[in-house]
Amino acid sequence: MRSGNPQITLTATAALDPHVPGYVVVPGAVGPVDGDPDAGDETIPVLLARFAGSDAMPLIRRALDNPDITVAAFCGGSLALAMAGLLEGRTATTHVLGIDMLDATGVNAVRARVVDDGDLVSGGGVTSGLDVAIYLLERDFGSHIAHAVEELFEYERRGTTWKSTGQLAA
Fold first, then answer.
1. Most buried of the four, 49, 68, 94, 139, by CB within 10 Å?
2. Contacts with 102 (C-beta within 8 Å, 6 or more apart), sequence order
3. How is the chain split into domains, by residue range?
4. Does 75 participate in catalysis according to the annotation?
């Protein structure tokens, strides 16, 4: 798989099977925010749009339809899913620079570090990916596992996870 960084190539070891329970992780991209796409500039919006139009999106759509799969997207990953029309009507977050664009795609965009919308858990900027991962460990496997990973990484999860629950939610 081609990544957003020309120096890094990721080799898939298996195909995404939207029928197998588990997790699908959708990261963002790296690169300049501004530039001239007509001149071939590989800006973050260009990379996200390319991914949004890729063959991965129908598979991710089917994964989102499977209640036994959690899609975890962070940074621009959630924006790419929204650009592909996969998150309309859902609640999510993305990198602060893309939050208005996320909102414009029909997503209930929340400015939070981590947003839990059931089978879709999204995070803000790139370091929010760690918070998403540790949150999912706690949610799905318990606080003992999440705490052990925090200690191993020497990282303490930050912020509150936004959920559509409670008296003032929605």
1. 94
2. 78, 79, 82, 92, 93, 94, 109
3. 22-158
4. yes
